[in-house]
């Protein structure tokens, strides 16, 4: 199964923290890099967060090395909106609509979202989304 690594775990890894999320990313990059994927949304967030030219070059190389799971607008945009509405109807709040888009892509492709972002646990609780959470308890 493919892992779709959210920006929240990439940030831990890129900052060089010794967090469980960072160690997980590092272990996957070493052992099974072909099973790690990204989307345009995650790539955009990572590129936007680069703090300088060297960091940007590093992120560009990283993003270019990953399997890209492309957004299919005709499928993923309506699915993301439906995920957001479903959560809201159940009294749950998804803070970032981009997370709904990432979840829609993961659901369409059968990917597991690896994250440190509570939004994905809300989405998992209100849909069939599979996640691996590194959210602090």
UniProtKB/TrEMBL annotation:
Its cofactor is Mg(2+). It holds the Pfam family PIN. Residues 4-124 form the PIN domain. This is Ribonuclease VapC. Signal peptide: none annotated. Belongs to the PINc/VapC protein family. Mg(2+) binds at residues 6, 99. Keywords: Hydrolase, Magnesium, Metal-binding, Nuclease, Toxin, Toxin-antitoxin system. It comes from Knoellia remsis. It is an enzyme of class 3 (hydrolase). Toxic component of a toxin-antitoxin (TA) system. An RNase. The keyword Hydrolase applies. Its EC number is 3.1.-.-. GO terms for molecular function: hydrolase activity; magnesium ion binding; RNA nuclease activity; toxin activity.
């Amino acid at each position: 199964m493919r892992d779709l690594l959210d920006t929240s775990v990439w940030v831990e890894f890129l900052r060089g923290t010794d967090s469980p999320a960072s160690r997980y990313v590092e272990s996957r990059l070493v052992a099974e890099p072909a099973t790690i994927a990204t989307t345009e949304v995650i790539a955009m967030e990572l590129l936007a967060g680069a703090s300088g030219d060297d960091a940007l070059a590093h992120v560009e190389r990283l993003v270019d090395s990953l399997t890209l799971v492309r957004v299919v607008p005709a499928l993923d945009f309506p699915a993301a909106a439906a995920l957001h509405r479903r959560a809201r109807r159940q009294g749950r709040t998804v803070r970032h609509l981009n997370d709904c888009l990432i979840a829609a892509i993961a659901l369409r492709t059968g990917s597991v979202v690896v994250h440190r972002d509570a939004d994905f646990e809300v989405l998992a609780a209100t849909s069939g989304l599979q996640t691996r959470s590194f959210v602090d308890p």
